Amino acid sequence: MENTISNRSSRTKLRHKKISNRLDGRIDKLETMNEQLKEELRHSKVLNRALFEHSPVGISIRNSAGDLFFVNKAWKKIWRLTTRQIKENDKKTRHWPLVKRYPYLKNVISKFKKVFDHGGELFLPELRVKHPKTGATMWISQYYYAIQDKHKKVEQIVILTQNITEHKTAETALRESDIRFRTIVENLNVSVFRTTGDTGGHFIQVNPALVKMFGYRSVKSLLKIQVLDLYHNRKDRRGLIKELRRKNFVRNREILMQKKDGTPIWVSIYAKAQCDDKGRVKWIDGVIEDITERKHKEEQLRALSLIDDLTGLYNRRGFMTLAEHQLKIASRKKKGVILLFTDLDNLKKINDEFGHSIGDRALVETTNILKTTFRRSDIIARIGGDEFVVLTSEAGATRAKDLYIRLQKSLDSFNKKTKLPLILELSIGWAYYDPDKPQTIYKLLLTADQSMYRHKQSKKK
Q: Are residues 219 and 234 in the same domain?
């Protein structure tokens, strides 16, 4: 009997020991898991804090009453406040007082209340506020997100803030610049356009001057048509686009076009192609000048034998006819005129040494130099065997020196790459027509000729 009791007691102790060992093992396992969870929690806290602190977006957290209890570095930088200043001026940084202080924010109060009272989220892309410390005007963007407990009660409000003042200032400046540009373009007497880069072409933008030039009623009506329809000869459009694709620009291209009613109109086009990264033409910007009247006068002058056969420039008779008319316009408009007088040096010597064919080529090359140097609106003429003149309108007296320098540079550039067996040399002089002290074209020519002669003599010294 006693042995039986003793055996039972031993088995019971053994079971208790096994149970105790199992419990100890589970406790150790639970303690290990607890330590792992603590480490993961610590790591999570460190990670979250790092994300918060180093985020480029300002982050602040408030309770449902609006009390601030967390901000990151970016938030402090936006508002330029230290930790101490934040505690001292928390009332100034609360959003409810912020809304109450600025009447223009009243329209968002109901949205604020919905987030603070019932949860959810709110994004305000643009808010104009005053800095709580300096009072300076700022533009900010804010996102609100409510954190709720299991009973759907708002516990915290997370607010993401970005300072968009610089972006807003740049946007405003760009908008004002665009308005100024449009105002200038729309009030210019010069015709300005932007078209697509295809051969047919459609207008993207035109100013009123262009609308008037081609006889349309409105900008809207001109934007509807194909650019190709304005060309008298469609091959000219294809040639223009081909050259733009090759060189990216076209300067002073004279083309016969037509108005809405079919009336022919001669124009001079300056255009520049805007290309993408792959070199494809995105659009074409340009300026068009109506030169119909000038072309008609050129034809009339040519019909009257007022054009020099060798160079294609006006001869002396043609120049005198046009110049007298130009001086009358200058007197009426009170605008100055500059007359440039130039002489091709040593033409007789060139003819004697190289022959008249080379002499003629020298005269033609001199003509080309003058044409590339001066505007198409300037009157260029060959008034003698080796004498050329240029009459440039609406110019001040001080511009004469600039014209001389420009011509000299063109001459030097030509001589560097010339295929002629000689170097071209020009003697240059000028005279200024003052509309307040009018004089005849003959007097102006004499003054310019004397100036040119002094330049020729100075080169011999």
A: yes
